[in-house]
Amino acid sequence: xxxxxxxxxxxxxxxxxxxxxxxxxxxxxxxxxxxxxxxxxxxxxxxxxxxxxxxxxxxxxxxxxxxxxxxxxxxxxxxxxxxxxxxxxxxxxxxxxxxxxxxxxxxxxxxxxxxxxxxxxxxxxxxxxxxxxxxxxxxxxxxxxxxxxxxxxxxxxxxxxxxxxxxxxxxxxxxxxxxxxxxxxxxxxxxxxxxxxxxxxxxxxxxxxxxxxxxxxxxxxxxxxxxxxxxxxxxxxxxxxxxxxxxxxxxxxxxxxxxxxxxxxxxxxxxxxxxxxxxxxxxxxxxxxxxxxxxxxxxxxxxxxxx
Length: 307
Ligand code: DON
Known about the structure:
Blueprint: H1 6-17, E1 27-28, H2 33-36, E2 44-49, E3 54-58, E4 64-65, H3 70-82, H4 103-107, H5 118-131, H6 134-146, E5 151-152, H7 154-163, H8 165-177, H9 184-195, E6 197-199, H10 201-207, H11 227-240, H12 246-252, E7 257-259, E8 264-269, E9 273-278, E10 281-282, H13 289-302
Antiparallel strand pairs: 1-10, 2-3, 2-9, 4-6, 5-6, 7-8, 8-9
Helix pairs in contact: 1-13, 3-5, 5-8, 5-9, 6-10, 7-9, 8-9
The chain binds 6-diazenyl-5-OXO-L-norleucine.
């Protein structure tokens, strides 16, 4: 395996992309008011290798709202608790539709296409509610993965709940089909709070570390998932992690990725490293505008891709 100076590579990416912040083409998510207040002029990137080497540049230590990146960690908890039974009510196909779309749920009888669209993540939250205190479990998992406490931004959580009309519709629709076991308000409370977790690029790059080492804990080496389960999470990230841009991400980047409307994107280079990039302005598919460019540059500079 060639040795690479990852710090130099991230510094180059930061130097090359930072000037583009003044001419951002995307828009910060505005449908959640607390996110609309975040400055678009932010860019951070961090990575952590399987060997524990780290590199970071820009605003890599600044906490931001992880939003849909949380769906990877809630899925991890649900796979651990339920194994194969999880897939009885959640699909594994890309949706080709926006992350908050309602349309497929009707013809597909309340079974979400995959665990990363909002409907799928709400269904995962329902399974977790049946297992116990889902919010506490998720924060505990993230805290163990990062080796430091992780918290929910209460203002963002409130803002999500105040304006979560589409998510409320999705949850009620699934409840109507009988595919949610628990009370809609309880399930949505878990979902809104998981989206409002605040983490930095450095923390996300570390927390995701089990995804590049066959499921083993990034710091302790103990199993978080087994190798087969980890391959499946990565496969879902590649095919569904960036919603209706998943084909474009596979084409341009070729790494399992998961984005969030806070502007974060985490990516996995299996057997090598995990990285996280953050820049709040989004393209029309809800993925970070500059974040995607950073991942493209990273792959171009390192040749690291699953293809
Ligand atoms: O439920 C929502 O719409 C947001 N809390 C999360 C959506 C999201 O992050 C989609 N990602 N790109």
